[in-house]
Amino acid sequence: MIWEPERLDDQHHLTEADPGGMLLAVAASAAQVRTGYRVAVEAGLPGLAGQARPRAVVIAGMGGSAIAGDILAAVCGRGVPLPIVTVRSYQLPGWVGAADLVIAVSCSGRTEETLSVATEAVRRGCQLLAVGGADSPLEAVARQASAPFVAVPATGQPRANVWLLTVPLIVAAAALGLVQAEAELFEEVAKELEAISHRCRPSSESFINPGKTLAMELAETVPMIWGTSPLSAVAAYRLACQLNENAKYPAVFGELPEANHNQVVALDGPLAQRDVFADDPGHGLRLVLVRDTEEHPQVTRRRDASARLAHERGVPVSELAAEGEHPLVRMASLIGLADYASVYLALGYGIDPTPVSAITELKARIAE
Q1: Residue-wise pLDDT tens digits, 274-314
Q2: Burial of 261 (C-beta count, 10 Å sphere; 0-12/13-18/19+)
Q3: In sequence order, what E strands does 268-307 have?
Q4: Which sign, positive or negative, has the C-alpha torsion 118, 52, 67, 227?
Q5: Any idea of the CA torsion for 289, 290, 295, 297, to the nearest 10 degrees?
Q6: 184 partner at 20 to 30 Å CA-CA among 26, 121, 314, 348?
């Protein structure tokens, strides 16, 4: 597979190489926000306002569904009066009990790990809320437990439905008083994603298209992606995962200040040594800083110092900056761009971004 940047401005190639319609799925992010809000309201989630606040909120999910829990925790922020934890496993932590709310999220409603946790939550007497595909085993678990269930009309891959799965969680958190999120906020998020889709549209040429530009920067490098706040760290993790699944591409995720205590040393390693005059300079490191408007002052100093350190060693640096005031808007501004970049990177390599053959094969082997 060879990187050919001219492919990104070849409209025929962008259509033919994306038979699963991943670019269209990313472009539908704004519609997902609006639909997610509608189905959450129809499922009665605003009615949670009349219930006692749980001791903790535990989100159970895997892959593209689990990231919804990470987004929820980041949007609620450090001031939230209870822990919000994402569980990516078959089992609940031992401390989870009847005083806690477990939110099971599965795009298909059939994810075995999530079903295991949801069933365990019911057995322990936890409050349960489920979000997933209609007429699924997850809905059956929720109905049997007389728990709220939000049926989401998801299509395609779970990672392409992140906003459809996330918005009901934000609506539930708002009802519980964990975050300020009125109907107007979700429309603002949708408009932010629409603006990103306009700037990153396939017909927009590479030199003015931020999604294509980022893809070209990442190509033929090993991205080391660092978030500079809890919120931008989630966006950084999302970018790494999207590069993995859409572009079948490796990426390293980190968060400041922790990455300054380990990953930064890679700037002195073999992948940081690039011979720009060689016929094939190799796949060297690229530092990607995912910035937020709300950073600890010391983290800002670390970010600037890290960028200088990389430049001095010949390691290129890319920066993504969050935009907007509300945390959910800032998250959308980062994830929207990241999603486009990952798809364009795949298409620049001539890779179909939709299939995840290795995951499918792994599941088949486990089922044997």
Answers
A1: 665 555 555 799 999 999 999 999 999 999 999 999 999 99
A2: exposed
A3: 284-291
A4: negative
A5: 10
A6: 26
CB-CB neighbours of 249 under 10 Å: 20
Query: For residue 179, which of 67, 41, 49 has the smallest C-alpha distance?
Result: 49
Spatial separation of the C-alpha atoms in residues 35 and 164, rounded to whole Å: 7
Is 278 exposed, middle or buried (CB count within 10 Å of its CB: 0-12, 13-18, 19+)?
Answer: exposed
The token pair at 152 is 């989401």
Dihedral of alpha carbons 6, 356, 63, 51, sign: positive
Q: Which residues pair with 60 in a beta bridge?
A: 87, 104
Residues 6+ apart with CB under 8 A from 365: none
What pTM, to 2 d.p., does this model score?
A: 0.95
The full length of the chain comes to 368
Contact assessment for residue 14 and residue 141, using Cβ atoms and an 8 Å cutoff:
no
Catalytic (active-site) positions:
245, 261, 363
Classify 328 as helix, strand or coil. helix
Confidence (pLDDT) at 281: 54
124 token code pair: 């322990």
Q: Which CATH code of 3.40.50.10490, 3.40.50.150, 3.40.50.300, 1.20.1050.80 fits the domain covering 24-188? A: 3.40.50.10490
Q: Under CATH, which architecture does the 5-18+205-348 domain have?
A: 3-Layer(aba) Sandwich (3.40)
Fold: same for 5-18+205-348 and 24-188: yes
